[in-house]
Amino acid sequence: FLVLEDSPSLFKGIAYSYRQAKTTRPQFKNQNRRKMSGVPPTRMNQQVFKGKKKAAESGHKLLKKKADALKVKFRDYAKAIAETKSSMATDASSAFFSMTQAEYAAGNFKQKVTEGSLTARIRVAAAVDNVAGVKLPVFTVFETGAPVDNQSLGLVGGGKKIVAVRDKFAHYMEQLVKLASLQTSFVTLDEAMKVTNRRVNALENVTIPKIQVILDYISRELDELEREDFTRLKLVQGKKEAAHAVEKKRMKEENDRDITAEFDANDDADVVF
Length: 273
Fold this sequence. Notes:
Blueprint: H1 2-6, H2 8-24, H3 30-36, H4 43-106, H5 110-115, E1 122-131, E2 134-143, H6 159-256
Antiparallel strand pairs: 1-2
């Protein structure tokens, strides 16, 4: 009561601050309150969640760069597949037409080929290509060094046509292996892009906003605690100032009082020596 009587302006300021804080304080849903009730609004938690937010933003930036690199590689693979398919159509037509020419010139030699040794002269090797942390399978063709069978084919006629058929089908098989490698890498890259984009969207739309909401909640609670401490300190200071004013007034009254006026010489007893 002493503070309110001696400091009306302080009381008005406190009442105004309370009304303003009450009207401007945002209203949260009960669900958000329940979610954030497990996070104590302390400075330590604020620093912890700031570190989490920084790590999430760094991860989001790296995943974004990874997604961009995968998109560039994805477009390159799509372009290479389209070019390979268009060239394979011409190669297949040329190879099978050459087969028809060889059969016309040398007769039906398929049975002689199947009767010979079927040791493969060309094999397919598998390797791995690393693109932005994604392992892509790569198929390559290599020769085993096995001797060529049926060298006597075409001695009577059509030898050049048979050699041309062998070369064209070898080239066609290389293109086929290349296409298989490109399409396999294309599918693997597509799956990796989907996973990366899901992670980017999760960080951008779920994780980082959730951490930001918690940081905003902690900041609001800390600001409210600071306002409460400030109000409490002002009240304590007001009480101290009021008590000091009362004490000062009392001391002034005591100093202004005339002690000699209250002294009566008749009241003193005689002193005998």
